Queue: 2 jobs
Job 1
Amino acid sequence: MPGHIITVIGGKGGVGKSQIAANLAFAFASDNRSTSLLLDFDMKACGDQDIITGLKAKKTIKDIAEHNGIFDKRTLAPFLTKHKMGVDFIGMPKDPLVAEQINAEGLGKSLKAFTNLYKITIIDGGSELTDLTIKALEHSTMIMMVVTPDLLAINQTRRMYQELQTMLFPKDMVQVVLNQFEPKNSLINKGFIEKQLEKKILNQVYRDDNACRSSLTKEQPVFALSKTTPFSKTIIDTVSLIKRKNVLEILARQKKPDIKRPATEGGASSSSGGGKSSGSAWVDLKARIHKALVEEVDLKKQDSDDEHAKRILRKKTQETVVKLLGNEDTKGILNSHQDKNQIVKEILDEALALGPLEDLLANKNVTEIMVVGPNKIYYEEGGKNKKSDVVFTDNRKVLNVIEKIVSRVGRRIDEKTPYVDARLEDGSRVHAIINPCALDGGTITIRKFPEERLTYKDLIKFGSMTQNMADFLRIAVQNHRNIVISGGTGSGKTTLINVLGGFIPANERIITCEDSAELNFPQDHIVRLETKPPSIEGEGGVDIRCLVKQTLRMKPDRIVVGECRGGETLDMLQAMNTGHDGSMTTVHSNTPRDCLSRLETLVQYAGAGISTLTIKQMISSAVHMIVQQSRLEDGSRKVTHVSELGGLSGDVIILSDIFLFQQDGIEKGKIKGKHMATGDIPKFIEKIERKGTKIPRGLFKNA
């Protein structure tokens, strides 16, 4: 039969929960005549349990969290500090900075293992609901809240009890112990405290200052020094009460089985059949709660920029959701504590955040999110598209998410203009399209912005380029070569231009022009410009071409255009040809030769009536290099060509490949190949060397 975990917490510091936790472990060991386990999870009082128990921990909770192997008596032994009275102990790191680094998720496996190794595990959970404490509570049979006959302690205990209820921990799971009890205190007595907490007190522990001071001085638990002190007697009485009333067994039976909710919530995303499944019941319940929530809480306050107001709104909304769920018949839908937590989170995310997209946005391995109506959410992970288990409640929730995103950046979307480009607060690019153009409901595509700016070293590590290629591109950028980055959708053009932009010297003035700001250069002297859609009346719009023209009056050393897709290409080429060398842009195309054709076509969009030959002459003199970025069949992204433009031969622009990616085949679904230098030396190298910069010819040789 599995053992039990009791986590002891206090509403505030100074209520004696650490003393009670330690002595409970010793009292249970004595009563059960078997070893108990004592764990210190109190991050705010690092090392207090070492003093209370007199046990100097060899290993700490941090070591347990980082252990990747299995736990049994043999493998656990090195982590334990043992007391002769039958208590094993694992302490908290004494350095608070080290304690903050403990991975709470890593403790889940060990807590499950402890219930198979010990009849009783006592955890000192501290006086704050940290991630570490919450992880302990999730694996506990009982939560023991310690309170003292003090108005502030009672108030803070009531606050914590309400917070636990909001987090959907069962009421019966929380048992209150009154510490420092004095029979003569008639004002703040047991009845008064129970009325304030709206909770019965399990037992009372007598105030015994002399015994507690003595134990701390001698660094031994009160119970270990004497079992006859008032404190020890009431601790023993508490253990006897818990065992006599079978409290732990009753609480263990009340805990519902951990049944995961259906993988597909909406039914429509995985099958075409009708009929209600438990998944549709889940969605229906969410819809009812959300409808009732709108009537009780003013969700418009979430638009405030006041972070404190947002936190208050979220807490109030969470409390309301829990109350509304309590009024619903959730039998067969919410089968466990985890289910309840999950549905509250989903409702809060849909009401106050971006709904089911929140977890995908938080997942660092997900690079792109694609929503196709309410019942289909796809994401890219490891270069592969996958279908998510989660869905939106209905299309209205999809539209709400779109409206939240576009309103934050001053954009709009409606039936007249049913599409929009926007960005999230972290810079992630968003495209949305709605009815009447999107037939299956609102469609959202999010290109996630990396938390940390990638550098050329990362691209080398990923195999996107070699060190020689990176060194050559750095030389080209620093020496003001005009570069066009070519590639298909999702090939990594923006990532590459961000990397190349990092090579620009810090003393140069950079001006960027984008539809939706994504460029993230490390330099300080940078001016970021973004297009503006027209108003409802169709006035006031500012497009990329207008921005490029404005940059010419802003004394730029470098002009970087996020993407050329129209008449702005002509203005960009003219800028490159008139003293703004070192400029960069991206173009949608599949090969360097296709890129040249694409540039010709885009120049014609300007409507200037320029002949094809003149356009080719302009391109050949303005653009020095084309860097081709491609997404291969296995999802990997690589620089496949680094090519130099060598002028016109008749009416054909000469292209010379400097570096190529040579594919050798596919092995276990992964493309095999290597980057090769062709041996051609770029013509502009001699021009650079005449200025005094020596460039090693070894860059253009294969190892």
Note: The chain has 26 helices and 23 strands.
Job 2
Amino acid sequence: MFTKKKTIEHVYPSKRNVVYARNGMVATSQPLAAQAGLDILKKGGNAVDAAIATAACLTVVEPTSNGIGGDAFALVWMKDKLYGLDGSGPAPKSISIEQIRKLGYEKIPKFGWIPVTVPGAPAAWVELSNRFGKLSLKEVLQPAIDYAREGFPISPTLGKNWKKAYEIYKKELNSEEFNAWFETFAPKGRAPEVGEIWSSLDHATTLEKIAESNGCDFYKGQIADKIVASSNQYGGFLTKEDLSSYKPEWVNPICIKYRGFDVWEIPPNGQGIVALMALNILKNEEFVEKEELNTYHKQLEAMKLAFVCGKKYVTDAKFMNTSVEDLLNERYGKERYLEICESACMPLPGKPTSGGTVYLATADCDGNMVSFIQSNYMGFGSGIVIPGTGIGLQNRGHDFSLNEIDENALIGGKKTYHTIIPGFLTRNNKAIGPFGVMGGYMQPQGHVQVIMNSIDFQLNPQETLDAPRWQWIEGKTIEVEPNFSKNIIKGLRSKGHEIIVAKDTGSFGRGQIIWRNDETGVLIGGTESRTDGCIASW
């Protein structure tokens, strides 16, 4: 698979051991969800069944990062072919820039009904189950239903994030429309403590209705009626027709060749193309040493150039004026590479030739693998919970622009630039496996670091995830983790980078990796040490 060169264990010891297994593997940020996925594999389910079970469980056991009312994307390797599913929802058809401006906003707010878009996650589960699942949706969702009804103990990172979110919401969400959030997620007038049991009977009932109706109740039945009633009561734009007409899209994954491998992402509206653009720039140079000033300088400059192009050109594919092919053109990548100089730049978009989320990875014994990601965005999302359902709605619409000339300008029925992205790696038309790093705009930056750590520097999955991370913030500002090399920091500052050493690792994403050895079928997994990450294997 990868030819081992050298590790960085002597510099940054891994906090966990890489995991090996043969019959199945589930890697995600919460142990209970990972185990639920593994249990489904042991019951005869495949990698898709395990992914749905894990995803549904995560809406219960990690509600600080995702929920039933969020979006989802998946890359599915099934019987030697890669499929892509875009489970993101559009803005309500009736919304417009003019209406939002009349309400007194200069940009779309983070909270409330205005940033709410159509939830795509439940429909994505149904679509995946119908096309590829072996078990019934009811059986696959049962672990999540049980945890919601019977409760589960709060894990350390979850408890920390829940408390942080509660303090923000307590300060900012004071109107009546947010009461249901506090009733659902802070029933004792506070965030639940680490080790305390939390449950949600409404959440359990909603999951049961989704399972029994194969998703129809959420988009066309009683759940949809409750969502629309709340929208109407509090000045939202979401209608029954918005929900009933929604359907996830099967899409062709996009890729670039990188040093003999194919790196795959979901096409726009997702920002996976930003990671591919950065790698398309970086492949114009050979990198020998990871812990070397030139390596980090070139990575940062390439990432900046890719990001400014992504933010300028990427939106719902139906509304893009610049093609994916043009943005991933090798000549364009070379042109951007030649723009990198010896000092930090203030990045500007190029001109191509015309022409806070949960991530999980699953694999089964038959070689099928899934890269899956879902989110409510910014932690709990909009702060809107539909009374009597446990459903917290996402605030994806916050990323729309209210400037009509922007590519990502708000239009009713349009999907916004989307931060959540699953990744997948193949070589010679054979699966290496799924990878992902959740966390807003850190995600494509995390993907670049995962791929380079794995391919350029030959680190195993756990070493790849444990290696200190960087992230571009804006302009020349770069944030690095506390254990980042002091010598590299000094060198980067000498090149004009404005380096901020973060106080903790909370904003640097949470990743999972499963690689498969095609000759032996052995699965090799790494999980995130920055959270309550877990690999359940068999």
Note: The chain has 18 helices and 21 strands.
